[in-house]
């Protein structure tokens, strides 16, 4: 009982106070000093408040990474970045060394930042997530990072990861405890789902579609859980 109470108190303190001890390095600090003034101006020009909660989506087929920022009660698109490279085509990662880049629903917490990456700067996506662990999927250290080469990660090039990393850092530093990151094979609309109906991944993508549709209709990232080894949303 006491342990549970202490955990609850710790969580309350975490969600109500900015994080001040994020992983950092001279490189990351120098990058922030160089790119944040421009990004802050872009946010202000778009009617966004710097440090607001953010949400990230990746689409494999379109080779894009989107950053959405909370404005009032819903999220609006801030910037879209081209994904330079990912490996393995459509379908999610299931085992170590399979060469696949994951698809699914993840969260980025402060301690998933890697400011000393061999790939300039990097953000661990949180693979394997709860669903993937329940299915026995293997593999670790799957990142969004710099450069334009990768096996299993999402390579963005150095200039673009500097922007993405900085926006993520600033939101976490302002108090967002977990940034939703949703990775899709393509836009899960009715037309694309019909085209992939014969795919071995169709059941998995159809499960993901429920979460995709919720955001499309509400412009609020859904709360994601796992029930009977499937994603559940509300």
Automatic annotation (TrEMBL):
The active site is at 145 (proton donor/acceptor), 153 (nucleophile). The keyword Cell wall biogenesis/degradation applies. GO terms for biological process: cell wall organization; peptidoglycan biosynthetic process; regulation of cell shape. Residues 54-184 form the L,D-TPase catalytic domain. The keyword Cell wall biogenesis/degradation applies. Pathway: Cell wall biogenesis; peptidoglycan biosynthesis. GO terms for molecular function: carboxypeptidase activity; transferase activity. It holds the Pfam family YkuD. Keywords: Cell shape, Cell wall biogenesis/degradation, Peptidoglycan synthesis, Transferase. It comes from the Bacteria. Belongs to the YkuD family. This is ErfK/YbiS/YcfS/YnhG family protein. It comes from Mucilaginibacter paludis DSM 18603. The lineage of its organism: Bacteria, Pseudomonadati, Bacteroidota, Sphingobacteriia, Sphingobacteriales.
